[in-house]
Amino acid sequence: MKALAIDGGGIRGLIPARVLAEIEARTGRAMATMVDLIAGTSTGGLIACGLARPDPMPAARIADIYVQDGPKIFERRVAKEVESGKGYLDERYDAGALVASLREHLGDTRLSAATVPTFVTVYDLESRAALLLRSGRDDVSMVDAAHATAAAPTYFEPVPLGPRTLIDGGVFAANPAAFAFAEAGGAPALLLSLGCGDHTRPLHYADVKDWGKLAWAEPIIDVVLDGGADAVDAQMTALAGDAYIRLQTRLEEASDDLDDASQKNIEALEREARRLIEARSADIDRACAVLAG
Known about the structure:
Elements: E1 2-6, H1 14-27, E2 37-41, H2 43-52, H3 59-73, H4 78-84, H5 96-106, E3 118-124, E4 129-134, H6 142-149, E5 159-161, E6 164-168, H7 170-173, H8 177-183, E7 190-194, H9 205-208, H10 213-216, H11 219-240, E8 244-247, H12 263-279, H13 281-292
Parallel strand pairs: 1-2, 1-7, 2-3, 7-8
Antiparallel strand pairs: 3-4, 3-6, 5-6
Helix pairs in contact: 1-3, 1-12, 2-6, 3-5, 5-6
């Protein structure tokens, strides 16, 4: 089995989208025709749905959507910033622009219509359980699945879906590669894992030693997501061996914020993606050989 897993990371999903576009350009084929499973968390779940819809969306087009719609989705309105206390008192963004983009590009497609087995990670606040919304099991729309997996706490409201109240699966699987490994039966021919760029801002002892709940409220989310993704990377390196290819980069100039969709940062993310592709070209070629083989 050949599996693709895409991390969460907000607007930084532009990086794996560009990497996927490079793979499609080198192979001349759509990703959905080359893999047996696609797994996505948060922004990676949005990409997964685009790749797996009945009329597969080219990865280059998905990347362009980040550039075009990202600033609308993460538009920082003064009134909302004040009302939400910058995310401390209420969610930071209205999900209207996100849902509108999903509806435009996914329409009324059901997750069950995916052309390749696909799942996205979500967490159910009602049952306090980690869940996978699977194409072969869950009769939900791709819009609802994508909205739910992207509902990052403090950024967007939770998503009510039937008896469930769902939030971003990044709270337990920022890197969904371990779940893809399990779905593949533990012996994939390829497990291609795509990151959205590592966090880069250190938290110094002198700054954090006296922090309480309020001060930790925002940075702890990044710490949990980053630490969880790194743990999965270490596990898959040990368990999957050469079948595991992790394409990740340390952000050199782009912001590691999930929601910095400024023109300046989008341009920086584009450069980060190009550097990753250039630095890991041999590994991309190796992945392409397996995918197209």
